[in-house]
Amino acid sequence: MEINLSPFKYRNIFNTDGGPILRLNVFHPNIRQKNDYEAVAFLLPSLVPKWHKKSSIYNNGHGNGTHRLRNVACYIAISEALERWAYFNVCVGKEAVKFGFDIEPNTSGMAAFPGVTKSSARIRANWETVERWSIVEWWNNLLQCELLPGSNRRSGTLCITSPFKNFYTVITWATILSGEVSYGFASADNPKKSIRKACIEQNRNILALNRLKKDVPLPLKKIIIDKKQPLFDRRLIFFASKEGFDMFWEKVVSSVKMPVDMKLPDKLVDGEIIGPWSKYATVWRILYKHASYEHVNELRYDFFMF
């Protein structure tokens, strides 16, 4: 892996120095992995389009980072915020079709990294897109999965068998004290790294569900069916419920060792997204072709992708 230039590239990242970041919030999540720092980066309001839907349950930051070192957590959050800045600009611009936003209108397959060369951003974009592609195709009954030892309905980990060799895409889940189920998913070049990344995401979703119980006045069913709410919020809430988890578990049971004919998908996008964010980091997007695109259907709150 190449040298990370975050300390140099991000030295003038805040708006007080002419940069795009308004502020950073840093805290200990106070759940699993208690020694980690959680950082949340916020873009300047002028960089966030009016059409962007604010979350009812997440912190509405534009980038998150988790790491045992405080400064690294901050760098990760800033990189993700830069990725989001690029998305806001390009997804509705003249290069939207070139980078696949006409068929995949979200940040799937995107990554930002401040390296000496562009290769690390591309590697991370590939991890991201393999993860998303594998989960979507698994949910569409086109890939099988393997349950890791000790997995059951209350908590566990599954690994999706995909045509991408040397990539490990996992889904973790756990039932929290209030009875809801929290999930995490990730892809990396070794199983331990994938599980670690998935657990970080799962913990963020636990925080979101806890926040939901405390702060959100709307009935949960109203949020699930309200198209004004972000799609991923609606899916998180649905699959946290008993009905949603039952659907997830049925998919797990039916897809374990399910015979499938796997082949590598066609690559649709593989390129750098250049813009004012390039001063700070390389932003890259990679997309592979899906068998169908129901996962981007705003009506499908019952599709396991969030």
Question: Could you please describe the fold and organization of this structure?
Answer:
Helix 6 (about 230-240) crosses helix 7. The model has no long low-confidence stretch (mean pLDDT about 90). By secondary structure, the protein is α+β, with helices and mostly antiparallel strands. The chain is globular, with a radius of gyration of 19 Å. The chain is built from seven helices and ten strands. It has two domains: about 5-130 and about 265-290, no CATH class; about 135-255, 2-Layer Sandwich (Double Stranded RNA Binding Domain). The longest helix is centred in the middle third of the chain and has 25 residues, at about 190-215.
Question: For the CA atoms, what is the radius of gyration?
Answer: 19 Å
| Number of helical stretches of at least 4 residues | 7
Strand-residue proportion: 15-25%
The end-to-end distance, rounded to whole angstroms, is: 28 Å
What's the total count of β strands?
Answer: 10
Structural class by secondary-structure content: alpha+beta
| Count of all domains | 2
Low-confidence stretches: none
Share of residues in helices = 25-40%
Major beta-sheet overview? 4 strands, antiparallel
Listing every helix as H and every strand as E from the N terminus to the C terminus, the arrangement reads HEEEHEHEEEEHHHHEE
Strand order of the largest sheet: 5-6-7-8
Principal-axes geometry comes out as: globular
Which whole number gives the mean pLDDT? 92
